[in-house]
Amino acid sequence: MMPWNRINWRKREKPAAPPVEPLTPLALTWLLVALALAAAPHARELSVWLTALFAAILGWRWTIAMRDRALPSRWLLLAVAVLAGAGVLIDHRTLFGRDAGVALLTAMTACKLLETRGLRDGVVLVFLGYLLVMSNLLYSQDIPMIAYLLAVVLAMLAAQVMIHRQHAGLTALAPLRLSGKMALQAIPVMLILFVLFPRIPGPLWGLPRDAYKGRTGLSEEMMPGTVSELSKSDAVAFRARFAGSPPPPKQLYWRGPVLWNFDGRRWTSGDGRPTGIPVPFTPEGAAIEYSVILEPSNRIWLFALDLPAVLPPRATMTPSFLLLRDQPVNEVFRYEMRSYPSYRTGDLTEGERARGLRLPPRSNPRARALAGEWRERDPRPEALVDAALLLFREQAFYYTLTPPLLNVDSVDDFLFRTRQGFCEHYTSAFAFLMRAAGVPARVVTGYQGGERNAFGDYLIVRQSDAHAWAEVWLEGRGWTRVDPTGAVAPNRIQEGLYAAVADPDTLPFLLRRGGDSEWLRQLALSWDTLNNSWNEWVLAYGPDRQKEFLSGFGFGPVDWADMTVAMTVALGGLGLLVAGLRWRSRLPRDPVVRAWQGFCDRLARRGLARGHQEGPLAFAERVALSRPELAASVREIGQLYAVLRYGPLVSSPDVHRLQRLVRQFRA
Amino acid sequence: MLDGLRRRFEAWVTRDQRPAHQPIRLERRRIYILPTRQGYAFALLLFLLFLWSINYSNSMGFAFTFLLAAVALNSMRQAHDNLLGLVVHSVGAEPVFAGQEARFGFRLDNPHRTSRLGIALQWRERTPLYADVPARGSAPLVLAVPAERRGWLRPGHVRVLTRFPLGLFQSWSWVEFDTACLVYPAPRGQRPLPATLAGTPGGGSTELGSGSEDYAGFRQYAPGDSPRRIAWKAATRTDRLLVKRFVDQARPELWLDWWLLGIDRVEPRLEQLCRWILKAENAGHEYGLRLPGTRVPPARGDAQRRRCLEALALFTVRDDALVRPHDAVESNKLAQARKAGRAAG
User: Fold this and answer.
1) Residue B334 burial by CB count (10 A; 0-12/13-18/19+): exposed, middle or buried?
2) Is residue A382 part of a domain?
3) Predicted ipTM?
């Protein structure tokens, strides 16, 4: 039995929970500044009340820190959190989705600020800050935005350094220098990861419905006003780079959705089922080789010149020669294309003929009557096409961005009353007339032309280049493109929108030509060159581009396993390189050791080498005995070195003295 | 379980380390590094950002995620380099009484041109103490280690650590020095001072405050001093607690004798003796100490006090010395005291 006095009565010592490490006012200031910067771009999307709430709480928290006041009570915090959540719910009708998610993240950050006391809260806030930075990327990945967000990341890193109270030795701006250094040193690894980390095609799961809302671009239907509305936007739709010289403007028809169904006012798709191989046709003449760098459109269609002969990766083609991708394009997407501007397509199936002639019953009677007249005069399809074009050319039709509104029978109203329209009006009327006259016809939407950027030697196609034209099926030639706009405003095709419309002042600045601000436009074009390179090389670097890029090094096709190996090798090589550099720079680092080494070397050349185990004092004594004339200086150097090397404190005057003594030492 | 693993790792790593009697330079091979809890959370954040980038096919999202990952990776190297080449000196520790905290002084020297921020010393799992070590400078740190028992107290392995710069990784090294702190027994026990040999009226059991005729200057406050003797005025001037010393020339010598105490166990006996020493010193007595096998002749003053306390602190129970022949009556109890002594000793 254990004696009673040996029983350990004390409870086992348990380490007490570490006390809250409070945030210093300086650390909190850094944190608040970084968070404000991270959230600032969201002011564009967030409701005014949320922006105001965020700013107010930021200011409030700062005042609390500076004046050393108490934090608000839990109840107030809870109230703010519940109200903010409710506000977001009311604003967005949901708590999920991109916009609601960002609003919620902002509100959460604000609430967290109100209960931020110590290190752990600081860490949570920094993490929320990084999420805020990421959320900004969902809205814009432009060069200015990226430059801005990089600054935010630097501030956030500085805040992350500062929240650790033990680093309080850093004053005011010193952390920024430190974070700048950290980011610079991180760049090589980041680049390796960016280039070689095997990319997985997203999305992994369903995206919220509003993930990419607010993107302008063609829609899958056409009615009066859709294209002219788009024409007022100078946003870039895509850019194209040609292998040879770019084709003439009259061949620059960028094919988009093909519309078959007409209800009297609105054209909708009705296209056939896409296939995984290019739809066959007979090319006549040379091919055009080019690459397209498509801006995010949130649509699945890919634009190509008439008529595309190859499929980009993960793409299919409809019987109407429309290219479709498996996922909506929500990143900058680059693909190689080959098109034949002259071609002959195959036969028409019965179904296609029926759909190409179908018209809504009893709509637009006057247009039908007109088509009937033409048909009686000359039933050949070519003659009917000419008759329609002649109508547009000879009668008083105007090409305008701001056409008058049309009533239900839009074609009749346009042809016989308003006579002012944009390409969709002419195309719609033309296709209607052709169908009414018995010629299979369909509407093609897309873009026409583009602006050549001489700085970067590529073509910029903007939303303002949106266009619509018609295709009629002719015996022996197949589907033939007819652009009725060309009959009204030939300049539109040759020189672009600015030269063609009757009211060019309604166009955005970038689309105007000549005048006093031409130099500014040129400046904008050179800026666009930078943007294009950014898009082509950085933003478009996705799973497909990565494979393509890495396979171009002559090692044959590359898969994810090869990439992993390459990445590991690159990272390992970098590590070895850094280790090697550090090893080299380690040797001469300490001036005290360096001076002493020089002193020993000099004596060694005189036959007085220091033994491995010999301390500085013993060595100096030995030298002093064998060379009495050097005794004084040798002893002084030995002692000084011993003090500097093994003594408590290194003072720089002493280091300088040692260096001077060694310099003056003559053995 | 993790705690156990950590302790086992520490034991394994330091198995060949001998307590050093000279400064320790932190070399590459003795610096270890692991992610902190924050570091693991950061990894989770990176994973989240990565998934987010995939889901939105966001090229710059990937770049951002990779940048943060690279910064984190680099911060691991920085945490390692922050310790590398630092020289740890042990400065020693002043004696304390059991139950107090021994304060071990250390000094961190930085012979390099870059300052080392956020370096900490940590004893066991206590809160680490942080300091910044300027370039070519040094920083003092004092580690408090609870002194639970009398005798020599060695802190054992002390952890030198840093989480600089981002707190995602902790790099650390274990250092052990052969410095020790002498721990006196705790001054305890309520027995009055024994009577003096001369048997002056009222001599032995005088109150501390009374009979102090001759003022003999100040000395530093020590535990056990009567608050009535603290020179408050002097304290405000010097920032230290001083006690007025009174010397009574007529006071006869006093023997603080192990054998006078009828206490069963060794430690309480030593504690009572300790209290007596402090009382006697305060009262200005000349006192001597008698322990089995040790005899400190009567004297007074700080040196005497220290000599006596040291004797108590380092007292080891020896079987032959413990029992005096005429104490045979009590031999039963003393046998128990021996056992207790072994347990304590």
Assistant:
1) buried
2) no
3) 0.74
